[in-house]
Amino acid sequence: MFEPVKIAPSILSADFMHLGRDIELIERAGAGYVHVDVMDGHFVPNLTMGVPVVKQLKKATDLPLDVHLMISNPLEQLPWFLDAGADSVTVHAEALDADGLARAIAAIHAAGASAAVSLKPRTAAGALAPVIGDVDMVLVMSVEPGFSGQSYIEGSDAKVARIAEMARAVGAAPLIQVDGGMGVKTAPLVAAAGADVLVCGNAVFAAEDPAAALAAVQAAADEARVAALDSVKEA
Ligand code: DX5
Ligand code: ZN
């Protein structure tokens, strides 16, 4: 059955001097989540925002807060983000061993939040094998994490398809989220491959009319999803 994709605008590309205004704007435009990119200057070169920002966002919006932890020590910081009101927390497979990943997922679930695991572009889909049945969402990075405004890495859609297949094979159905270089040209590729949630930084916030830009990405992705469903039916 057709389900529209959800757009998760990344506030890394928002205007921090007018963050409240930008949040209201994406709420009215029909965003599905607020994507919060947490970077520690260690796991990735860039340093962005942390727990105090998540706390403030929680007061400012009813949209679910989708917190993407690009940090080296997620197990230590997780409880703070959960306390601050994160609705979904993503940890990176490269930051933890299999036992650490399992502990992170358990801690997120114990707080009543959704758990996601992310893969950098060069990490093989197979890294998800131990956890694919336990996560609510998988995040496929389609750029090297660290900065917004980069170009989509070709072939990321094939990785989405592989992960969707891996999940089906074990009877799991995590949402698949794609992050990096999403726009009207690239969103249809990953949506056709099985992506459910699209993170958009620059495509939304650098646009002259962010609400129209969000709607355009959503429409392009949904059209590709409908077409992919139709071709399955015909086959
Ligand atoms: C990159 C971040 C992304 C980024 C997306 O490390 O995880 O969420 O801000 O920005 P765009 O959509 O501009 O590539
Ligand atoms: Zn992100």
TrEMBL record:
GO biological process: pentose catabolic process; pentose-phosphate shunt
Pfam families on file: Ribul_P_3_epim
Reaction catalysed by this enzyme: D-ribulose 5-phosphate = D-xylulose 5-phosphate
InterPro entries, sorted: Aldolase_TIM, Ribul_P_3_epim, Ribul_P_3_epim-like, RibuloseP-bd_barrel
Keywords in alphabetical order: Carbohydrate metabolism, Cobalt, Isomerase, Manganese, Metal-binding, Zinc
Residues involved in substrate binding: 10, 68, 146-149, 179-181
Record EC number: 5.1.3.1
Cofactors that this protein relies on: Zn(2+); a divalent metal cation; Fe(2+); Mn(2+)
Active site, renumbered: 37 (proton acceptor), 179 (proton donor)
GO terms under cellular component: cytoplasm
Xref: Gene3D superfamilies: Aldolase class I (3.20.20.70)
UniProt similarity note: Belongs to the ribulose-phosphate 3-epimerase family.
Protein name per the record: Ribulose-phosphate 3-epimerase
Native source species: Eggerthella guodeyinii
Gene: rpe
